[in-house]
Design a protein that fits this description.
heterodimer; A: 391 residues; mainly beta; 5-stranded mixed beta sheet; 5-stranded antiparallel beta sheet; 4 helices; 31% strand; globular; B: 151 residues; mainly alpha; 3-stranded antiparallel beta sheet; 4 strands
């Protein structure tokens, strides 16, 4: 009746539709089995991040893995009828595989691989960038099992002019338009040919959770995780940079030359992000620890640098005036994160912050401030820090 | 009907109009209490009908969406939560130009419809209630939950 009584707009309510405003806020614990302390940034589409202390495990379990979606998670998935088609202008011959064939025809590999959202850290930029305001929790490092993308591409045959591989997945656009992909990104051929670039079908020894891409997911660790497409049904071998939804500027791109904060940058002056920069997290203790005078503090965490290795991790308790070395482990394989730890003693009572700074194998470190501003708020790899009080 | 007195004609006409209005009202009321079936596709191609939000406001916040209660709230819910959650709005901050740019991007690339005369009121609401907050080059640590560390 309100429609007819002095309301400005009159539109027919879609049949059977319950307005989102009236739907109860869904619980990610029930919906995805996520740990109750995971932070929901958005519930349509679903975007959930971890907190630093939740990422303490050496191998990230499913319940603490961040969730990132541009569209709607597919509902009805049948692995038995799932197929992967390789096509495109630079493929020798189009070919379609069943999941069963992929698993049996090609050798299987398992690697521990970092996935990090390009926008991890976005919340700290000023002027603010639009999008999910991730703090530090859009990163994970689980075991991924699958076949090498390279093996499939070599089986299919790729022409000499091939330069890019684009993916297409089964997620649905928010507007429910069946003609629109929420996202269709890709990777350069050189990345596609790496040992650790996988078409994965298992995570931590089990079927990949649906929210994370079951039954088939591309893993291109070291690149923004949007390159690691979920629910893949088609790969396109391109003779140019892939041009799917959200592949190119302004999406997942930064100004080719550094700009002042707040600058409007035309798309042609933006460059697509590939390798992400060095970063680290203190995962123990949780920020906010109260200690007694004389009590030493053991801290630990992880550091990662994509295709590069971590050379060192240091900590500071005086806001960067002095730095001390942490003990650092080697990665279990390329693209895995590396664990660090240290024992810290404090000079006396008071409020302290423990800052961690990782340096990669090229000698490049994390900045202490938010790095170069960019219009979409990507690549904030500034040092992580936790608060401590001694009394 | 011409042979009836004009007052009776008027009454009959009004009665018919009331019946039509009631019928339409019943139709709209009956259709807004079910959740979509599993696998059913609902097309978000128009804003939502939004009623009774005043009752859901507590301490200046519309509780189901988390949106600040201010003039224009109903329009924002109607247009801006048909496809995505209100959380996409409440997470973000921008000046008027910034919010307008987001709307244009959605209209250009994400199937958002023309907001018509409602656009000005929506931009008023967003720029008033979700404007950027200046922080230093590195925001300080906030919302610290202090606890005793046991080793």
């Amino acid at each position: 009746m309100a429609t007819l009584l002095g309301v400005d707009i009159v539109y027919a309510l879609p049949e059977g539709y319950l307005p989102l405003a009236l739907q109860p806020n869904q619980d990610p614990e029930k919906r995805f089995g996520k740990h109750k302390e995971m932070r929901v940034l958005n519930d349509l589409p679903w975007n959930i991040e971890a907190q630093a202390h939740l990422l303490d495990d050496m191998v990230t379990p499913a319940d603490k893995m961040f969730v990132r979606n541009n569209g709607l998670i597919p509902e009805k998935i049948d692995p038995d009828s799932w197929t992967l088609t390789i096509k495109g202008e630079s493929v020798s011959k189009e070919k379609t595989y069943s999941l069963k064939t992929l698993k049996s025809q090609f050798p299987t590999h398992t690697y521990q691989l970092v996935l990090e959202c390009g926008g991890n850290g976005r919340s700290e930029y000023y002027p603010p960038a639009k999008g999910n305001q991730w703090t530090i929790g859009a990163v994970s490092c689980a075991h991924w099992t699958g076949i090498r993308l390279r093996d499939v591409l070599q089986d299919v045959g790729v022409n000499d002019d091939a330069v890019y591989i684009g993916y297409y997945g089964s997620d649905t656009h928010l507007s429910r338009d069946p003609g629109k992909n929420p996202i269709s990104r890709g990777i350069p051929l050189s990345k596609a040919m790496e040992d650790q670039t996988l078409l994965a079908f298992a995570m931590n020894g089990e079927d990949i959770p649906v929210a994370h891409g079951h039954p088939l997911r591309l893993i291109a660790s070291g690149f923004p995780a949007s390159a690691s497409g979920k629910w893949i049904h088609t790969l396109s071998v391109r003779n140019k940079v892939h041009d799917g939804e959200k592949m190119a500027p302004p999406s997942y791109s930064v100004p080719c030359e550094p700009v002042e904060p707040g600058t409007e940058v035309p798309n042609e002056d933006m460059c697509i992000i590939e390798d992400m920069p060095v970063k680290s997290l203190i995962t123990y203790p949780k920020s906010g620890a109260l200690l007694k005078v004389g009590q030493n503090l053991n801290i630990r965490g992880h550091a990662w640098a994509g295709a590069k290795r971590i050379q060192s991790v240091q900590y500071s308790i005086d806001f960067g005036a002095t730095w001390n070395a942490c003990r650092l482990q080697n990665p279990v394989n390329r693209f895995a994160w590396q664990h660090f730890e240290a024992d810290i003693s404090f000079p006396g009572k008071g409020y302290y912050e423990v800052w961690a700074k990782a340096t990669d194998s090229d000698g490049i470190s994390q900045p202490m401030l938010t790095p170069g501003w960019n219009p979409k708020g990507y690549l904030n790899n500034a040092c992580h820090r936790i608060a401590i009080k001694i009394s | 009907m011409q042979h009836l007195p004009s007052s009776l004609r008027l009454l009959l006409g009004a009665g018919l109009l009331v019946l039509v209005l009631v019928g339409l009202g019943v139709y709209f009321q009956a259709e807004n209490n079910t959740i979509p079936e599993d696998g059913e596709i609902i097309h978000a191609d128009a804003p939502l009908q939004v009623d009774g939000i005043e009752a859901q406001v507590e301490n200046g916040i519309h509780v189901p969406t988390g949106l600040i209660a201010d003039e224009g709230l109903r329009l924002v819910i109607a247009h801006c939560t048909a496809c995505h959650s209100s959380k996409l709005v409440t997470q973000n901050r921008a000046d008027r130009e910034g919010w307008e740019k987001m709307i244009r991007w959605m209209q250009r690339t994400q199937n958002l419809w023309d907001l018509g005369e409602q656009e000005a009121a929506i931009l008023d609401y967003l720029s008033e209630n979700y404007a950027p907050v200046q922080t230093g080059r590195r925001p300080p640590l906030t919302d610290i939950d202090w606890y005793e560390l046991k080793e």
